[in-house]
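Q: My collaborator sent me two sequences in one message, no labels, and asked for predicted structures for both. Can we handle them in order? The first one she listed is below.
A: Yes, handling them in the order given. First sequence, followed by its structure tokens:
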Amino acid sequence: MLFQKTYTGLKVLFLSLFFFSCSVEDIDPVDADLDNSTGTNPINPVQPNTSGSLVYAPTALGKVSSSPQTFGIRNDKKLTDYEAIATNVAPFNTDEFPDFRSVVCIQIEDGKDVIVGSGVIISSQWVLTAAHNFLLPEETKNLPRLSDVSILIGNDPNRPSKSLKVSQIIVHPHWTSSDGGFEKGTDLALLKLATPISDITPAEVNFDLNGEKDKAYIWTCGFGDYSQQAGQNKDDYSKKHAMVNVLDRIVNGLTTTIAGTTYNGGLLAFDFDAPDGNYNTLGDNIANEQERVLGSGNSAPEALEMEGGTVQGDSGGPIFIKINGVWKVCGLLHGGVDEVRAGLKDSSYGDISIYCRTASASSWIQSITK
């Protein structure tokens, strides 16, 4: 789910997703009628609704009509609502929200094209991201030149507060021999910064296999491309955005062996619920081959007030889960399930997003960064 933008007319070249316009209805994002009067979330009753912005409040089914298609965000919201959360400016600067400053934009120059992905700073010298931002094993085994890779700091990649270079790109050993799929949870890469960064607090990574809990609230963040959507500047890169969801699947126990060494992998996944309760794809009885890799489980149909999905360019962006009171990076975005259901487009309602799990890959990550 990376994307390319070419300098020739600044036209976006999409690798796999079909981009389309979405309508926006004029609905108050904090309408009191959409709040849950009990003060608890029926999706996850152990986590109370305490946010003044009601981001965790589930939409009462039937309260909001939804188009069968949208793109990455609820069609009754504005992209600027999700961008505001990612700034961590009040009221999004409490411990109800992760510190999104560690999430960075990764740009790779490739001739006239620029490949854009996302990543997260996990120490003063390391950025964790997805391996497919740098190579697709079914197409090439060659990494880009280090001089062509830039790490952009800040919320707006068009005007970054800082641009950093990398001294090393390390992809998971299994990724280069894979077919480019998510099935083993090895779509991971580490970037070593040429110069340590000291003015951003690194995100903490979860290495505890028992850390994530089913149906926990999760936050995702990245620089996915909305430039071709209505109301957006088609020549600009999209700003950092963040959205909330509910964790629907936790997969562990995936293993691969390379040159006599066994590597562990795992996955996290969620679906993008529609405000009217339709397209609850991880809660229905329809599952293609890719979805079956995620195992069995259930999913509530209610969409959270600031729920969203993932789009091209979010690749490598983190999924944050609060564990013992601390927001931790638990996975990096690989992409989504193909053809979840007939008639559903990528990044629309029903789309299933899949993250490679950090706890499962803890040995590999820690062997490099420590």
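Q: And the one she listed second?
A: Here it is, processed independently of the first:
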Amino acid sequence: MQDKEIITALKKASTHLSNVIKMIEDGEYCVSIMQQNLAVVGLLKSANDKLLARHLSSCFMNAMKGTNEKRKQEMIDEILQLNKMSK
């Protein structure tokens, strides 16, 4: 179910982005373009949040249940790096 939501959000973002590009090409009002661009950003953030939730509840959880301490630390480091990138 969650994969479908992720794909839907990404497809909507793609469509919105195409519209933003067309708005720029057509010389539309800057604020209108920025509003639509922020909608794209919101859809991408939503998809990313869902991807993170999926990762934490599957890959990450499985690694934490395991005994490979190096892999556990790698998984934690990945999440920390993603956190830094999202700021």
